[in-house]
Amino acid sequence: MSSVSKRLGKAEVRLKWDPSPWSRPPHHLDIIATTYSADAPYGQPVYVVRYDSRSPDGTINMPRHSETGLGFGYVEVMVLELDRLAPSFVRVVVGVAIHQNTGPKTFGDITNAGVLVLEGYQKLLEDDFTQVAGSTATTVAEFTRDSSGAWEFRAMVRGSDSDPVEFTAEMGSAGQL
């Protein structure tokens, strides 16, 4: 499931994790998306979408957000309407970051964590973060637009030790690939 080469229209990224024990501060994970223009596909993001924002045109948003992991199954969801993104956008990178405001935490510290990327009912990626257990953030997916305008998906699970703010600046850089 590393690459899907077909015309993608609308993708969904789902995130799950178990709440922390009652005597500990809550685990707070976030899905983050960064968008890149044709002028700088590996440069600075045009905009960043996370829990407290959405894309200016409404094509990338988070209809479900959790700060604790409480709930059944996937408790955080981001929707990417790729087919509605302006033609000037050629790349979208999606990642997951762990908030570090209650002390250092890695994916290995969080039980039952996982990410699922779907288009409709088709699973594009399902991962439990085992390969990035020592990381505090990770990219998970890259969507790129080809010359015909079709969007392609590539799984890109790559760990990082950055905090969420630094991570958004570096997650789509060429060095990450």
Point out poorly predicted stretches: none
Strand order of the largest sheet: 1-11-10-7-3-4
Distance between the termini: 17 Å
Strand content: 35-45%
Radius of gyration: 15 Å
Question: How would a textbook summarize the main sheet?
Answer: 6 strands, antiparallel
Shape: globular
**Structural class, from secondary structure content?**
mainly beta
What's the helix-strand series?
A: EEEEEEEEEEEH
Give the total of beta strands: 11
Rounded mean pLDDT score? 90
Count of helical stretches:
1
Helix content: under 10%
Characterise this structure.
- The protein has 1 helix and 11 strands.
- The protein has one helix spanning 164-170; strands spanning 3-4, 10-16, 29-37, 47-49, 60-64, 76-81, 89-98, 114-119, 122-127, 137-145, 151-160.
- The strands form 2 sheets. A 6-stranded antiparallel beta sheet has the order 1-11-10-7-3-4, covered by helices on one side. The chain has a 5-stranded antiparallel beta sheet with strand order 5-6-2-8-9, with no helix packed on it.
Summarize the entry for a quick read.
The chain is mainly β and 177 residues long.
Topology:
Elements: E1 3-4, E2 10-16, E3 29-37, E4 47-49, E5 60-64, E6 76-81, E7 89-98, E8 114-119, E9 122-127, E10 137-145, E11 151-160, H1 164-170
Antiparallel strand pairs: 1-11, 2-6, 2-8, 3-4, 3-7, 5-6, 7-10, 8-9, 10-11
